[in-house]
Design the sequence.
């Protein structure tokens, strides 16, 4: 009798609670009340990066990077170790990061161990200029050219033979040692033009062209990148290009100026692929640049480096090639 009373009581309580809840919902609905989560107040803190880099790309960046082998030359590291040993300091010692573009101290070596990763000149080691550089990492370069292959930019037959049936001119801006443009020549590009402001870099590129056996296919221009894009005839660059790679020193450029220049450059034609390297600190470049002149098709992050791939006035041919 006692258990039956308790069960009946619990049922009555549940029925009463449900009735009260339903009555409250009806009354609130009649009063125009909506059971929806309230929005956060306008004063709530917003994320630093809101989807694109519009707040950052119009100013110079401050980008911190750890000490890497391609920043401090190998002989300099060995000299540091010998000095530390003489001074009785054992174990690993931190190397100084040298400002990009500053002269290396009488060392002519290959601090980044740069080499061609694929194609006709695979395995060829490249010289590095006598300045401190931060070249595109090998894994990033490999991933980039895998993407370009998927777009049908290069003729696959040109890897095993010297005959190229498709026209592919590559413009390598901020070329440094020329590793990106030379990789493109090795994988089937018909011609590469290298642009760098430093004479030392241009001289190194000319040596690397000969080392890789691409005489007659590559040439360098010592000039400002913006001038090369805006007025190419003034610096001896003619025609249009199917691939343009831009790998600038992060802290020395303003990306908004660079993107505007490339979007309006006479060097681009329909379906020209533009590759832009930028740091994660910049945020994320927008999908469309300069009112749709450049349309983003890929944006991949590799550690602290981001590679954005854009197409100039896409016609759909790249989509057909990818299939």
Sequence:
């Amino acid at each position: 009798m006692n258990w039956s009373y308790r069960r009946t009581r619990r049922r009555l309580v549940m029925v009463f609670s449900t009735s009260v809840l339903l009555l409250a919902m009806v009354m609130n609905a009649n009063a125009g009340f909506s059971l929806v989560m309230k929005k956060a107040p306008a004063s709530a803190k917003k994320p630093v990066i809101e989807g694109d880099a519009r707040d950052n790309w119009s100013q110079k960046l401050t980008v911190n990077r750890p000490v890497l082998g391609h920043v401090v030359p190998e002989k300099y590291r060995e000299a540091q170790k010998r000095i530390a040993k003489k001074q009785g300091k054992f174990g690993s010692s931190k190397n100084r990061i040298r400002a990009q573009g500053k002269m290396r101290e009488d060392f002519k070596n290959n601090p980044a161990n740069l080499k061609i990763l694929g194609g006709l000149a695979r395995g060829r080691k490249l010289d590095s200029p006598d300045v401190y550089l931060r070249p595109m990492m090998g894994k990033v370069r490999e991933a980039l050219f895998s993407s370009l292959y998927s777009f049908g930019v290069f003729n696959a037959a040109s890897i095993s033979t010297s005959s190229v049936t498709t026209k592919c001119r590559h413009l390598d801006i901020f070329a440094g040692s020329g590793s990106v443009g030379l990789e493109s020549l090795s994988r089937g590009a018909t011609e590469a033009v290298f642009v760098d402001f430093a004479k030392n870099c241009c001289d190194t590129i000319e040596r690397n062209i000969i080392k890789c056996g691409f005489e007659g296919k590559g040439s360098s221009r010592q000039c400002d990148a913006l001038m090369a894009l805006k007025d190419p005839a003034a610096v001896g660059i003619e025609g249009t290009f199917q691939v343009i790679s831009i790998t600038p020193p992060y802290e020395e450029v303003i990306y908004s100026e660079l993107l505007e220049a490339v979007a309006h450059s006479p060097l681009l034609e329909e379906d020209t692929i533009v590759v832009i390297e930028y740091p994660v600190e910049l945020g994320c470049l927008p999908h469309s640049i300069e009112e749709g002149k450049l349309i983003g098709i890929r944006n991949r992050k590799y550690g602290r480096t981001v590679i954005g791939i854009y197409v100039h006035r896409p016609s759909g041919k790249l989509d057909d090639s990818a299939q």
Remarks:
- The helical segments are 2-30, 74-86, 138-150, 179-186, 199-211, 225-230, 255-263, 317-322.
- The CA atoms of residues 11 and 17 lie 10 Å apart.
- The longest helix spans residues 2-30.
